[in-house]
From TrEMBL:
Keyword terms, alphabetized: Methyltransferase, RNA-binding, S-adenosyl-L-methionine, Transferase
Name of a matching Pfam family: RsmF-B_ferredox
InterPro entries to which the protein is assigned, alphabetical: MeTrfase_RsmB-F_NOP2_cat, MeTrfase_RsmB-F_NOP2_dom, RCMT, RsmB-like_ferredoxin, SAM-dependent_MTases_sf
UniProt: S-adenosyl-L-methionine binding residues: D248, D272, D288
Claim: Aminoacyl-tRNA synthetase is one of the keywords in the record: no
Family: Belongs to the class I-like SAM-binding methyltransferase superfamily. RsmB/NOP family.
SUPFAM superfamilies on file: S-adenosyl-L-methionine-dependent methyltransferases (SSF53335)
Domain of life: Bacteria
UniProt source species: Tranquillimonas rosea
Matches recorded under CDD domains: AdoMet_MTases (cd02440)
Name the UniProt record assigns to this protein: 16S rRNA (Cytosine967-C5)-methyltransferase
């Protein structure tokens, strides 16, 4: 496909997303209908689409309309490229610009220029203080692909060399000891034997840093109470000889965890409600809570625009519920760890303060925050001792 045909395809996909389709579904649907497209085309179209969703507000202003076409015109203007170069109408290119496209103008106001929803801007700014603008700018850019080397099976240097032999550039990431950030060739990682044999997992560097900060020791009985796909479960398993248990309120989210654990050569006991109730208390309980995901908006940019004040209220209520469940499952003398990939104080330290006000006997050992400026997703971690 020509560069212009890729832009035309991105416009088609973006229109579906703006009409309410989830981004992944719209991209997969387009790929199924377009067998002529190669993997390079699909990757380029995906990049156009995700870049445009991340910068939806500013690109729509620059492009003169919040449509697929307007966003792609805006994207080109944001990159100081004349859209007329690709909007030619020739072959499969988008139609030439006309009066109907409007003029476009720079986004009005600070929050619009930062691609931040107006209603959330003040709260994000209060939470991030002087980091607000640089963090919002960072959220407008693509996130790197980062691997976690499975310490049970390999070391970082050995994996880096093997990746180089496969033509995939990789370099250590400063946030976590087992993290490798991929450069050229990153898209090939899904086909790499290193991945299929469980030597590496794809995991954000700050997500790895959260697990590295946990006070894990051999022999502990540990519960990952919000296990989801098990990213942090497996990272914990690689750190120490644990008696490791996993639960998620939506059990289907854990469906790949047994196969992933096998591949990584670790053991995890999966629970349903009944077995968890019979399992007693744990030396360490990790709550990787459902949240706004504001720290990972680079990867899931649609979530930035879909979040509403009502949904944020629901999420904080869920965080309080899961934290009080987790406290009850933490042994006396044990550790309760609370993590989110949110940048909002309301979902982070404010939830910990509310919990400690209602549950006496929880001492705060430490809190840490990461933002995309550190090179990974935004994360928050609080580690508490239960006395
Ligand atoms: C941020 S995700 C977890 C991601 C996962 N830990 C990882 O590293 O891949 C939050 C998870 O919490 C689950 N969840 C929400 N409320 C819960 C509850 N009350 N108890 C247990 N899990 C819950 C959701 O289904 C979701 O899978």
């Amino acid at each position: 496909m020509t560069p212009a045909a890729r832009v035309a395809a991105a416009i088609e996909v973006l229109d579906e997303i703006l009409a309410g389709a989830p981004a992944e579904k719209a991209l997969t649907g387009w790929a199924r209908r377009s067998r002529f497209a190669g993997s390079g085309d699909r990757a380029a179209i995906r990049d156009h689409v995700f870049d445009a969703i991340r910068c939806r507000r500013s690109f729509a202003a620059l492009g003169g309309a919040e449509t697929g076409r307007g966003l792609m015109i805006g994207a080109m203007r944001a990159a100081d490229t004349d859209p007329a170069a690709l909007f030619t109408g020739e072959g499969h290119a988008p139609a030439p610009l006309s009066a109907a496209d409007g003029q476009g103008a720079p986004p009005e106001g600070r929050f619009a220029a930062l691609d931040c929803p107006d209603w959330l801007g003040p709260e994000l700014e209060a939470s991030l203080a002087p980091d607000f603008e640089p963090v919002m700018q960072a959220l407008r850019l693509r996130a790197p692909v980062t691997l976690r080397v499975n310490a049970r099976k390999a070391d970082v240097e050995e994996v880096r060399r093997a990746l180089t032999d496969e033509g995939i550039e990789a370099k250590p990431h400063p946030l976590a000891s087992m993290a490798l950030t991929l450069g050229a060739g990153a898209r090939r990682i899904g086909n790499s034997p290193l991945y299929h044999e469980g030597l590496v997992e794809i995991q954000d560097a700050a997500s790895q840093a959260v697990v590295e900060a946990l006070p894990l020791r051999d022999g502990q009985r540990v519960l990952d109470l919000c296990a989801g796909g098990g990213g942090k479960t497996l990272a914990m398993a690689a750190r120490a000889e644990l008696d490791l248990h996993a639960f998620d309120i939506a059990p289907r989210r854990m469906k790949d965890l047994p196969a992933r654990a096998d591949r990584a050569s670790v053991r995890v006991t999966l629970h349903d409600h009944d077995s968890l109730d019979r399992a007693g208390t744990f030396d360490l309980v990790l709550v990787d809570a459902p949240c706004s995901g504001s720290g990972s908006w680079r990867r899931t940019p649609q979530a930035k625009w879909d979040l509403t004040p009502e949904r944020l209220d629901e999420l904080t209520a869920m965080q309080d519920t899961v934290l009080s469940e987790a406290t009850a499952r933490t042994a006396q003398g044990g550790v309760l760890a609370y993590a989110t990939c949110s940048l909002l104080s309301r979902e982070n330290d404010a939830r910990v303060a509310a919990l400690r006000a209602s549950e006496p006997g929880l001492d705060l050992q430490f809190e840490r925050r990461w933002t995309p400026r550190d090179g990974g997703d935004g994360f928050y971690l609080a580690v508490m001792d239960r006395n």
